[in-house]
Amino acid sequence: MHRLITARNIYHTSFHGITSVNNSIESFYLTKIQCSYCRSILLGQLNPEKNISVRHQSTRTASILKSLKKKAKHKTYRQYGELLAVGEKEMTETKVAINKLHAVHLSKLASSSISLGQLYQLTSKTIKESNISEVDTELLKTVRDKILKNNKPAAKEIILEYDDCALLYTSNKISGFEDTLKNKQYIEMIKESYYNFRRATIYDQRLQDLRYAISEGLSQEFDIEIPKANVKEELYKHNIPKSPRAVFRELFIDNNLDSYDQELMAHISTIQSHAITHPALDEMLDDSVLHNEISDIKEDHDAEENIEYVPEKNQVKSLKIKKAKETMKAKRKAMRDKRHALQELNMKHDIKELEQRGKQESLHKLLTAHLQLLCSLHMVQEARQILQYYRQKSFRGPDHPKVTDVTIYNILLHGYASMGQLENVKELLSFMTEGKVEPNEQSFAAIFECVERSELSDKVSILKFYRKLMQEKAITLNDILDRSKFLYDQREQVLKAVRRVEPGFEPQYTPPVLDYDCPLLEKLKLENVKARKGLFQSPAEGLLSVEETIQNGKEQLQIEIKGDIEVQNIIVKEDVIPESVKFCRKKLQETENEWRDVIKEAFIRNIGTLKSQSNASHSAITLYPYLKVLEVDQFVDIIMDEISKLVDGSETYSPTLKLLQREIGTQVYHRYQIEQYRRNGVLKKVEEIYEKYCQWFVQRSGTEERPYNARQAWLHLSHLHRDGASLDTVEAPWPMEMRQNIGKFLYNIIINDVKIDVNMFKSKPKQKKLPAVYKVHRPWGRLVRLELKPHPTLARLWTGAARPRLRMRAPLLPTRAPPAPWITHRAGAYLLTPTPLIRMPFNVSMQWKRLEESPPAALFPVLDSLNQLGEVPWRINQPVLDIQLKVFRSGGNKKLDIAPPASALDTSTFGAETDAAAVFKRRIAISRARAEMHSLWCDALYKLSLANHYRDCIFWLPHNMDFRGRVYACPPHVSALGADSARALLKFAKPQPLGPRGLRWLKLHAINLTGEFKRHTIQERLDHAEMIMDKILDSADRPLNGQGWWMKSEEPWQTLACCMEIANAVRSPNPEEYMCSFPVHQDGSCNGLQHYAALGGDQAGAVAVNLAPDDRPNDVYSAVAALVEEMRKRDAAAGIQPAIILENFVRRKVIKQTVMTTVYGVTKFGARLQIAKQLKDIDDFPKEHVWACSQYLTVKTFDSLREMFTSTKLIQDWFTDCAKLISGVCGESVEWVTPLGLRVVQPYYRRASPSHATCRAPLDQHQRPCTMKQRNAFPPNFIHSLDSSHMMLTGLHCQAEGLTFVSVHDCFWTHPNTVDIMNQICREEFVALHSQPILDDLSKFLTERYSYSTSEMEDQSIGAANKKRVNNMLQKVPEKGTFDLNSVLDSVYFFS
């Protein structure tokens, strides 16, 4: 339970039903107001905008109450709260937006049989004596006489009818809160408590226009013709009470009333599960006023409390709101700074040091990228000036970061070395000595290159001099060639120079590390050839020859160099072209040709202006060089492609202008990278190594006949061919801020110079040019997004042209040849297209640092897992594709997940309104529905067009992962991670015979896909498959015109594909020899709970999620639903209304999502929304009871889970507590190491203020972590890292056995004939994973990483208690249960 306080202006124009015409107090007489309190307020505060204090209570669960007691007592919860209404037999807790609650609602609650004002005051704690003076004794006497009559009416007859304000004072001890729910009994309690009143809650029942609020403490100035010295006397004369702010402060701050609130909260939380309703609350929620938006003003407890009067003529002065707000803002900022300063004392690292380190690292990244760019443009002298500028700047004071990264100097050294300018190299070396920067092997490689390229006559003596310097630093000649990275012909030049000093020298290159260093992969090490025998067999064996694979690889390289491809539009037929389409295509071609000329002219003009500005600029780093990296025509092509993307965008949603600018800037950077690869020899080296890799991939030869995987083979081939350019060169990416500026430059051309003739479609056109795209300010929550939209004429022209081909970017496509294997965290997936190993926000860098700090072998398991998934070749399932194309072209089918066009929208479902406002809302709703349908239709168009493009091809799907280790296919349109319709389009390219049990698994898979037999045994499913074989064959033969059995499945398209495969198999001469390429799935049974049950050794939980062997599958969702139903029956017998209403509605589907997401940290409110959505989807469920019944089911579902999974709750709580202390006390983000060695860092940090810096430090280098997100995300993220580890272990061992393995998180795919082997490996690796001391290892890592030393926890030190809590909590590992983990090996339904 928590207090919720808001603030808003109110008006006194309708006090007690008296309406003021001109908002002046002189328009009516004070004597007409019966309430003396209101009369006193009006006399003392004559202002049409005033504030009144109102308190509102709401409930939270008992578990949250415990944490609330430890929080600051002035903590304010805003935005949302839960209303509690209590009646004779029922109580309802409802979540509403409190800042939308008007006085009419408040009055209804106050006038009910028991109001919130009474409710929150009923406490079992004795109240201390208070010095608060009574508010208006005359009114109190009247109210007391009204309430304390001799007769004792029934509870439902008690209504506070008095016209004056209702002031309720209750404070004495109550024996039990349950008594308040009994008829008549609570009346005597109110009587007893009334005589000892000390606390007040003020409700005026007749203020219809009230905007209730707590006073902001603004100094109010009014005109009253009394001298200032007589203010106190006049206040006493009119009996004016203390100001609302003063009353509120004394009631709820000075006297710490929070303790009384919490006492009552504890009582209410014990009876939350009754979910009782109240008529007054139902009436209030139906009121349309509830949905009006009222902004809330933040509370400030330190505002002024005295009212200042300035005598002047009878005129009312306005409030000094601006000045008061500035004062309060300054006070709040001072309080926050003080609080943060105290928190910072406990934290591991000082925020200022963190910011300084972040500034220095960001400067190093900026200089590295910029100097690389300048050297590539042969602007070495300009690069030296920039370096000198920042060096001199660093000497001005300690606040300026110093240039201490040797990489920056090495870039310039190589720049001068390429020109043979030794004097400049010597100058740079002096700079390094002055800045205490030690040269490394790369530095001396540049020196040797420079000497070799120079025109010096005596090169040997100079080389010997530098060799002597190398020896002093323990660097050998071999180290120069072995540890340095080379481009162009640098390696050959350095080798020539070395041989001048040491004739006949041959470099000895260190072989790369290839083997694992992980206990879970001990038996897959290279020496265990027998355990890796499956690696001798190629996934592409029999599919492609070496020559075909190499040719496909060259085509893939050309696609990546070009950056995109064009695919046939599946809805455009080129055989008959209407005249209107020809006209639009002609106009579009003319317009595009005109645009190209305009864009080129504008680019040359603007870049000339930019060059002039750069020369006159005081900034060392300017934008001009970044716009010289490509030819002008290349920039024109990029801008034209961007215009096409804008026109193809959604009507209701498009990326913001900032995001568009960032993306086009990134495209320029990628084009620049490829151009650099052409020049510096990297592209040639990639072609050479990839050709040899393709030969190994198909034949599995050329690697000393050892069972290498893809990573090991690529590293081995690269080691054998070290001549030429290095493939592992570390290139500094352009800062995102610089890419943004490039995008701004290019988008200025699009917005200002690209125009279209808006009269082109008129019969007698008069040319009128307007911008082709325009800006749109679209509301986005509380913010406004700036988006770009095409002009309607351009959109019409684009649509009418019906372009026959669609353009798609290379990073969104499958590869035509085997993808490049991941060898480090920097290189993999595509050959040239940069692809991040980990999907992370661009402004977070800590995870990348951890990967760089890790030893190379630590990443090998996850890299090999991604490579294994990417090695699987695929084909398009052509029969299923043809059916989907037929359905799509015929208008789509929403039930089959084939999006219909927007023109198919049935507007009759939106009703027929006559009211003007309703008609407008209906029009908006129809417009949104059409836009959404169009977006879905376009998505289906792209996916089906791309699948149709690859229908006759073999292709591969490169993979990467998120920060937790969960894997994803890089191409989003054709992927196994798509929806049902997308998955059904895929099948393995390499078929295998069904074997003796393959057909059996196909039949089981068809039944599993329907989702109707999850509680049945394997044999029962097989028997059912045999019984409906005629329906399966009918679905395969007549998918659209037959009985349509497949359409009723949960996964209809995958079911249809399986039916077709079964039909082909049973009709073949020998089903066991039938070559099948259809993938069969095995799903985990609520995989998150499986990991929790194994972590905690929870016997009951293990049985519920099928870890323990059983004759029948245990469906945890059905088990929870059954337990909830038992509770519901007991409550229904007790007369609880929601339990009665929910009869026959407690179903598996209703609570499934909640049970599934509980393990991933869903909140009670989120679970309540999930259940409410499921109840709404039930046609015969009474919609008026959805909200109350969802509250009831949420509580019962959580209670059932807590009862079934005891250890799960303990582990979750420990995770949460650890994360809270790590982020809140230590001030650091939570990180851990997965069982496979992947370092994980949670990327949740506080928001940073806007900045216009050229290169800003990453968010995690100048902001503290967000404690709430850290604590809520740690439990689900840790479990996700475990299930990804299990998947990776299974995949690597399947690969070693020669099995085809694909994963969609906890759903494993393989050929039908290898399902049994995969199932065995899956269970063995789960047992092996959880046989590790996972929680103990986690505790050990967290303790080493975050615990405080004894010296930091001295009793006198600030925060010593919190530091001890951190140390104690990190070592407080939950105890394990008695579940025998080895029994998983015999569990048939663990994965099924």
Automatic annotation (TrEMBL):
Gene Ontology MF: a single term: mitochondrial promoter sequence-specific DNA binding
Name listed for the protein in its UniProt record: DNA-directed RNA polymerase
Top-rank taxon: Eukaryota
GO biological process per UniProt: DNA biosynthetic process; mitochondrial transcription
Source organism of the structure: Diatraea saccharalis (sugarcane borer)
CC annotations in GO: mitochondrial DNA-directed RNA polymerase complex
Keyword Nucleotidyltransferase annotated: yes
Family: Belongs to the phage and mitochondrial RNA polymerase family.
Task performed by this protein: DNA-dependent RNA polymerase catalyzes the transcription of DNA into RNA using the four ribonucleoside triphosphates as substrates.
UniProt cross-references to NCBIfam families, sorted A to Z: PPR
Catalytic activity: RNA(n) + a ribonucleoside 5'-triphosphate = RNA(n+1) + diphosphate
UniProt-listed Gene3D superfamilies: 1.10.287.280, 5' to 3' exonuclease, C-terminal subdomain, DNA-directed RNA polymerase, N-terminal domain, Tetratricopeptide repeat domain
